[in-house]
Amino acid sequence: MYYCMAKLIFVALLFCSFLSVSEQQYTPDWTSLDTRPLPRWYDESKIGIFLHWGLYSVPAISSEWMWWNWQGTNPVESIVAYMEKNYPPDWTYANFGPQFRADLYDPNEWADLFAASGAKYVVLTSKHHEGYAMWPSTFNFNWNSMHVGPKRDLLGDLAAAIRNRTNLVFGLYYSLFEWFNPVYLQDKSNNFTTQYFPETKTLPELRELIETYKPEIVWSDGEWEARDTYWNATQFLAWLYNESPVKDTVVVNDRWGSELLCKHGDFYTCLDRFNPGYLIEHKWENAFTIDKRAWAYRPTANIEDYMTIEELLKEVVTTISTGGNALVNVGPNMHGKIPPIFQERLRQMGSWLQVNGEAIYATKPWEYQNDTINPNVWYTSSQDNRFVYAFLLIWPKDSNEIILGAPLSSSRTIVTLLGSNADSVPWRVASGDRGIVIDVSAIKLHLLQSEWTWTFKLENISG
Predict the structure, then answer these.
(1) Which domain of life is it from (predicted)?
(2) pLDDT digits (tens, 9 = 90+) for 320-366
(3) Residue 147 to residues 134, 154, 343, 415: CA-CA distances in angstroms?
């Protein structure tokens, strides 16, 4: 009897020790919060879709910063002139609200497009700096998509479509501040010694979003005017990691205070369109726009303003090679349609990933990121180190050989080309201590399954 009781106590203690590890409680300070492991799904996903869609999609002039450019501290003359020419003198930004009808918005259509793109997660702007909420916010009366404009929960409809029709992870962008909110401006005039805005608006709204929609990405922004202590950022993140319905899977970025960029968070964003070109040890993300000049829809954009598929894939490959995730942004229009140029780029990316995805998803940076002699070659590695993948951005026009300086080959090295029907590609040892020369004379480009950025798979490479 004593033995059985002792055994039960031992098992109970052992179980409790495991429980304390798996349910670690994080305290509201960066020292503790930074110990949280990055959820594995995020690093393995590699590619996401960013969506900048809101009331600014109605005037669609300049960018998502239209209101600030029109009536902010230093108005942009061209925006002011445009408004004077096309709208009555008493027109306000709020007057755009009823025009944001989203009358052609089909979240199922969006979900199918994102699945076809090969992306693994989606981040929707729930609220930008203008303050307009894309869901029926309890804390945003008469300035949200249910009360003004579409009369619809735009955010909730997309979350449901993503979850019902795809395997993508659903996430949200949220702006901490609002340009013209009088409560925020009061705190600002007090040098942020008061916290009326975060206490009555930001933090309750964030909690409502998370408890209602359970996003597994919280992409914060609008942090640059006040420190993290003003936003009570560490207290919020401790709740998010300890108690929220997504506590085990959620990831957040580094935009929680004016001093935090590239310092804290599950992944760093550092700057918009951040792509340093070298290995960053902490997980990071490159959020970039297919429209090179704006995040939101612009009817004034010309074809040269959009990334070509070659430019897009270069951004993706160089980002993932150096340890980042790529967040590819598109801007739907006021009707809720994603313009064809964005659709084409996303579907092109998806067709490329169908061929080359094994070199992208769940990979890790290799010993070398960019080749030592060929600037148009970037690398990733399989998690088990069995394969090294060499991405060739530009196919040589005047040569039948591709020289790689980084790989150290062996007698067992095998080179294959993803998207080719050939079992292997001939190669030889380059002159010097390392490097290989790949013979591509027999390859017919028009017969390859991939039309851009070709991937050579290297097996039995020593380093």
Answers:
(1) Eukaryota
(2) 999 999 999 999 999 999 999 999 999 999 999 999 999 999 999 99
(3) 10, 12, 30, 59
Mean pLDDT, residues 54-72 taken together: 95
Q: Which two tokens stand for residue 341?
A: 């140029």
Query: Tell me, what's the pLDDT at 23?
Result: 65
Per-residue buried b or exposed e for 9-19, using 16+ beta carbons within 10 Å of the residue's own CB: eeeeeeeeeee
Q: Which domains does the chain have, with CATH numbers?
A: 36-358 (3.20.20.80), 377-459 (2.60.40.1180)
Is 0.85 surpassed by the pTM of this model?
yes
pLDDT of 110 strictly over 50: yes
Written as one letter, the residue type at 31 is T
Dist CA 365 CA 59 (whole Å):
42
Instruction: State the alpha helices, DSSP H only, in 269-339.
Output: 309-321
Residues ≥6 apart with Cβ < 8 Å to 48 = 119, 120, 121, 122, 123, 171, 217, 285, 325, 326, 327, 328
Give the orientation angle of helix 203-213 with respect to helix 154-165, to 10 degrees: 30
Where are the extended beta strands (E) located within 290-426? Answer: 324-330, 377-381, 387-392, 401-404, 414-417
